[in-house]
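Every protein is a chain of amino acids, and every chain bends into a shape of its own. The fold becomes a row of whole numbers, each drawn from a learned catalogue of backbone shapes. The protein below has been through that process, and both of its lines are reproduced in full.
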Amino acid sequence: MVKNTPAHSADTATAPAVSYWQTIAKDAPAGLVVFLVALPLCLGISLASGAPLLSGIITGIVGGVLVSWVSGSQLSVSGPAAGLTAIMLTAISTLGSFEAVLAATVLAGVLQLVLGFLKAGIIGLYFPSSVIRGMLAAIGLILILKQIPHFFGADTDYFEDMDFLQFNGQNTFSAIVASTNAISWGSALIGLVSLVVLIIWDSKPVKSVPPLKLIPGALVVVAVSIGLNLLLMNGAPHLQVRAEHLVQLPAIGSFADLTRELAFPDWSALGRGRTYIVAFTIAIVASLETLLSVEAVDKLDPHKRHTPQNRELKAQGIGNIVSGLIGGLPLTAVIVRSSANIDAGGQTKVAAFIHGLLLLVSLLVLSSVLNLIPLSALAAVLLLVGFKLTKPALYRTQWQLGWEQFLPFFITVVAILFTDLLKGVCVGLAIGVFYILKANLNSAYYFHHEPSSQPNVLHVKLSEHVSFLNKASIITTMERFAPGTHVIIDGTDSAVIDYDVLEAIENFRLAAPERGIEVELRGIRQVEALAH
């Protein structure tokens, strides 16, 4: 028997085709773009989680500086995730303090390490492609819908809230409606100019100029938006972007100031059972989000490299241990920043590392400059990223592949849009599994009529592996056999026949005489043994 060997194991990474120094010209600008996208997201998720603002930045730094090198992924970016905000809010309330949650975060990291060594990452290989594409398309739609209020300067809450129901009582669509009644015209003007600049910068004429190709469009947008806001400040103060619609980075003047601001775990929390429940919840949700994200990133990777899932779980575990020890939020691989990385031309993990370094530097020396950036300009960057994730061509391609691919894809999109990432993916997986089961109903056997000299003889040939998933189809087929038929059930080529199937065959053999059916078994000794 020929043994199939997978092209990649769950622990084997695909090495980059070129050295890191050869791609630095693309990785450095991409790292800058990811930094510009990640900065407000890190701050916003901290606020949404009920944690100190600094904690989100610390998580982003750990994800960029540490996890990027421990991970086997070349393009994935790790940091605080919106999907964990509700868990963090509940955890802080349950355990009584952020410091107690830090202890649970460290413990969650240990659990992820254990999962990695137990090779639990293999589950990531079982996500159907249609569901992964649906997840990417849904995230693209959510990015577009969620950034509209910020684009208009009409939203003052945290920057990233990926769930349909928001903490401020709004939902995705009601927030958009509300934003149309509270437009900040200065922010809207800067957002519109930024979007136009990005579209022009992404056009072929600009990309055909080598020096311009090296400059990321997001950097141009940041410079233009700051300059335009300064002009409004002097020429039309009533249009100036208000402080709450600018990046708000904590003011830290030195590394010593940074260390004084850090929070540390309250180890006494390990004496309470609730801490372990919180740690287990963080570990499972963070691991699932990570596996989903790296699977999606691999599909977006132009070089089609494979991320070793078990190594990724270990990397995330190490990241969460370190993040928890120095006052950071739980981290995961995150698709929004990873998509921005790929869209900006990132080639290797150097881009994620540079983004982490820039987050660290920004805390120490750049806060005064970065706090001048209008959020509407960054919203424009994410609008374009979102559009590239959910292009109409993607929907058309899935439709052309047929219902078995389109329906799980579309239902995943809708489910994520109206719930959250994990719930939506679970719904999509359920639909995908339904079609997988349907496709496998008849894969375990085939039957045919014997030659014309034996007109009433049916030969049912079982395949090499017959699992319990095939039980329903086999029973349904046997129920259709007409009286007077001689049925040969042939398992001579079967290596494995599930007990449930054997039992069904035996029940059919025993009941067949009453139906006027003659049954002949070949190579199915286990069934015969069941009768005694």
Observations:
- The longest helix spans residues 273-300.
- The beta strands are 77-80, 331-334, 445-449, 457-462, 465-466, 486-490, 496-497, 518-522.
